[in-house]
């Protein structure tokens, strides 16, 4: 078949970048509609194959002979016409020679989305028809699953907008036709999904909050419970660390699990003249002064007296039992007195004038007159004071004692009479008044009022 020449199809518009999927789809639809209109309106250029109008025949055509000037160039003289094979390979017109195309494959028209060349085998005319149901590229990364669908007289590549929701409240979700989904940071209120943070907010596309601070103790760290949000205490590791329980009445404090425990302090200040029983957790041991109580300076075998919290007047403890038949001492460990007895029968002196020098120690530790022939000395002999007006007594415990009597006596004066004891002395009444008297063998005296006067 003689070669047909057709005007070159218009070039498609450059792609529309950085637009949404719906905008590109609308532009594609408009472009398709315009091209269809253009094809229907512009007459086709011909080669040396006669058209129906030229031959006047309805069926078939007559090949032009050699020398037909019409084959040298296009009729309109345009230099952009190109030669086409027997079948139509490119066209922008709906009028061609009869049997210009034989099948749809001969209509290799412009690459227009969702449109395909169609051959009318009766007329040999190529035309663009919608390619419905054909998978296509919507030209936007914001649309997927493109399929050609009928829109008016043309077809449009339609698809499903992609879901750009990333489920993140801290981003503003959108779509760019060139790159697809775009997620920009947004300053929204949010919840980071953990109960152990506070003041949650969006920052740089991430929801976060301040970590909840849980106070601990000397022996435990505070930890937030991820289920309840409550603060719990967990013992510090390792166990047994030194700590301070804040109680002045304990010392050597150490951690026992999550608790700080110490041993009770001793408030004994070794001073017998203060009280030591009071301890206050804030200040510790309290000591109060004592007075007028017996005390010692740390030696239990001495004794003193408390004065304003001080032990004063300290002397050795008196362990003397009063018996010459014991050795007396104080036991330094206990402060008790110990009276060590002498062997029985050992000679002793009980210190009493009522007993003779023959007394000996008994098994009981007492000095007694117990040997045969040992007779207590009579009181009159042991305790005689030479006064007839006193009576003598002797007591082994107290020794000698005297009491006055009223016995008759003689005061030795020639000038008294009726002498008698009174108040422990011999007293007489005046007698022989005016008579000569002598005293101690000296005469020439005269009795006057109970006394010998002038006697020399």
Layout of helices and strands, plus pairs?
Blueprint: E1 4-7, H1 21-41, H2 52-55, E2 81-84, E3 115-120, E4 125-130, E5 143-151, E6 154-161, E7 171-176, E8 180-185, E9 197-203, E10 206-211, E11 220-224, E12 231-235, E13 250-256, E14 259-264, E15 274-280, E16 284-289, E17 294-295, E18 302-307, E19 310-316, E20 326-330, E21 337-341, E22 360-361, E23 367-368, H3 379-382, E24 390-395, E25 399-404, E26 416-422, E27 425-430, E28 436-439, E29 442-448, E30 451-453
Please sum up the structure shown.
Helix content is 6%, strand content 36%.
What does this entry look like structurally?
By secondary structure, the protein is mainly β. It contains 3 helices and 30 strands. It has helices at residues 21-41, 52-55, 379-382; strands spanning 4-7, 81-84, 115-120, 125-130, 143-151, 154-161, 171-176, 180-185, 197-203, 206-211, 220-224, 231-235, 250-256, 259-264, 274-280, 284-289, 294-295, 302-307, 310-316, 326-330, 337-341, 360-361, 367-368, 390-395, 399-404, 416-422, 425-430, 436-439, 442-448, 451-453. The radius of gyration is 76 Å and the shape is rod-shaped.
Tally of helical segments: 3
Q: Structural class, from secondary structure content?
A: mainly beta
Helix content: under 10%
The total beta strand count reads 30
Q: How would you sum up the global shape?
A: rod-shaped
Amino- and carboxy-terminal Cα gap: 219 Å
Kindly state the mean pLDDT as a whole number?
Answer: 76
How would you write the strand order of the largest sheet? 17-18-19
Number of domains: 6
Estimated radius of gyration: 76 Å
Low-confidence stretches: 1-98
């Amino acid at each position: 078949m003689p070669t047909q020449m057709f005007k070159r199809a218009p070039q498609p518009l450059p792609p529309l970048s950085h637009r949404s999927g719906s905008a590109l789809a609308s532009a594609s639809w408009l472009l398709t509609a315009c091209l269809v209109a253009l094809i229907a309106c512009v007459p086709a250029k011909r080669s040396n194959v006669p058209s129906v109008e030229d031959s006047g025949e309805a069926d078939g055509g007559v090949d032009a002979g050699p020398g037909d000037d019409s084959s040298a160039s296009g009729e309109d003289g345009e230099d952009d016409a190109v030669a086409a094979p027997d079948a139509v390979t490119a066209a922008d017109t709906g009028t061609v020679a009869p049997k210009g195309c034989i099948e749809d494959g001969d209509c290799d028209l412009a690459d227009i989305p969702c449109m395909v060349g169609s051959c009318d085998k009766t007329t040999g005319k190529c035309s663009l028809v919608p390619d419905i149901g054909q998978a296509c590229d919507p030209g936007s990364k914001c649309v997927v699953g493109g399929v050609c669908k009928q829109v008016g007289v043309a077809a449009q590549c339609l698809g499903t907008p992609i879901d750009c929701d990333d489920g993140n409240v801290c981003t503003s979700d959108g779509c760019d036709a060139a790159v697809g989904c775009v997620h920009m940071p947004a300053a929204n209120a949010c919840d980071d999904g953990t109960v152990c943070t506070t003041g949650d907010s969006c920052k740089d596309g991430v929801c976060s909050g301040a970590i909840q601070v849980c106070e601990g103790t000397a022996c435990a760290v505070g930890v937030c419970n991820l289920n309840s949000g409550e603060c719990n205490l967990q013992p510090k590791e390792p166990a047994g660390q030194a700590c301070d329980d804040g109680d002045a009445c304990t010392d050597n404090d150490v951690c026992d699990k999550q608790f700080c425990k110490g041993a009770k302090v001793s408030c004994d200040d070794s001073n017998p003249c203060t009280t030591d029983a009071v301890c206050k957790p804030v200040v510790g041991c309290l000591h109060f002064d004592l007075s007028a109580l017996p005390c010692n300076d740390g030696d239990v075998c001495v004794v003193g007296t408390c004065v304003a919290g001080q032990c004063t007047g300290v002397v050795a403890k008196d362990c003397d039992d009063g018996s010459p038949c014991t050795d007396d001492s104080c036991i330094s460990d206990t402060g008790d007195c110990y009276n060590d007895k002498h062997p029985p029968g050992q000679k002793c002196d009980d210190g009493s004038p009522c007993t003779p020098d023959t007394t000996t120690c008994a098994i009981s530790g007492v000095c007694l007159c117990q040997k045969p022939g040992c007779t207590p000395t009579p009181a009159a002999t042991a305790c005689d004071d030479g006064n007839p007006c006193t009576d003598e007594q002797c007591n082994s415990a107290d020794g000698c004692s005297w009491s006055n009597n009223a016995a008759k006596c003689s005061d030795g004066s020639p000038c008294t009479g009726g002498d008698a004891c009174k108040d422990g002395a011999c007293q007489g009444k005046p007698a022989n008044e005016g008579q000569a008297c002598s005293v101690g063998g000296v005469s020439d005296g005269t009795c006057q009022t109970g006394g010998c006067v002038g006697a020399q």
